[in-house]
Amino acid sequence: MKNIMKKTIFQCFVPALLFTLVLISCDEYLDIDPKGYQLLETTEDYDEWLNSEDIQTSLPTELYLLGDEVDQPTLSISLESAAARLRAYAWQQQFSEKTTATPIIWAPHYQSIYYFNTVIQEIDGAEGTEEEKERLKAEALLGRAFEYLYLVNLYGKVYDVSTASEDLAVPFVTSNDLADDTPDRSTVQEIYDHIIEDITTAISDLPADNSDNRFRGSVAAAYSVLARTYLYMSDYTKAAQNAQLAIDNSLDTILDYSTMSSVKDIPHLITREDAIYARLNTGYVFTAYPNLTFLQSFDRTDLRLEFFYTAITYPWDTEDYSFTTRGRMRYSTYKSSAYIWPNWGTSAPEMRLILAEAAARSNDLSTACDELDLVRKCRFPSDTYVKYESSVQEEVLQKVLDERKFEFAFRGLRWFDMRRLDAEGRMETVYRYDGDDNVIATLSPGSNKYTLQIPIQVLYFNQDWEQNTWDEE
Q: Does the pLDDT of residue 369 top 80, yes or no?
């Protein structure tokens, strides 16, 4: 049964993968009969392999649909017949009931893992210097760890040191041979151990600088992924240590929106100064609807509101920030025909907010407010901005958590914050509504829905796997 599973993990991309191999360098490959990764012969070939568009856009667009800032104000069909993305929005048990469908969130991550495993497994046999081989292998180890950090936080329970060695997560696939058996589900602890081991192994051979291509690995990128890893493990001391190391090894730049005339001034992501380890979502450009509760929580002078949210103007409408009617505001990755792709990867603002949260949780409120200020002063007009300060620990911590919500909205990160905050008892019930304001789904505190079900397309070929627990409604 398990050999067939390769079709499920990789079926969505293998044909495209072989086609990509031919197109990676048209002059070199158009006259070669593609034979999978065997076309890769030199370290230059592998370097191009790591520039794959599939890797750069590895994060499923549907991740943002899980967050509590999202609305679907025009939803008018039943969830039973709805598309997978709408079923994800309503946290349905399965996003598709068709066993032949491609798992919308599972598959893109394993697609990228295939790319990284190809480098890790095969680079030693390539033509090139040992230094080049070690660098490329290190980048692949970092990339694989990055993908598994998402997978363990989607299909495994929130990290709990007392249960992580028993809680099941995802299979840790290290092979790029489609004929190899698929391993069983690893535990949450095992996946985290692999993530940390891969990154720490990679650091010494990673480039010191990736400023010419933020999608590629670097020392700072490694520390930034470790910082996020330890944050999700609730190890705030190590999260802060690695966030600081990421900052120390990067340009430590936060784009200052207060100095920009419009969103058009934001640089291209490939060289954007505040990106540490850049990633795009699989859809590149998309439009989403924020819900009214989220919109109403904004400070109306917040430049993120001006830069990324657009009022929909009808002939009978005027643009305003009253936020009283669903569907009148949209989040867009583009405005005024200028495509400004948000970074779904790690960034300088994220590292600063990790430092702020760690400080707040240790009751170092002065440091927390200082770190918070480094981000917030770049998000408001300088002539009206006032630094946030408080001597109340819970207030400061909540301010940091709120800032994460504003800064990373619609970038696929909110779901992971919701999970860890729910584990602390900080999440209230979240509701989903259809276009007629009817409640169609609920996400209650402590709900098993915070851990996604293994896709039935995967279980079909692995029927001995244990499925994640689900809330019966």
A: yes
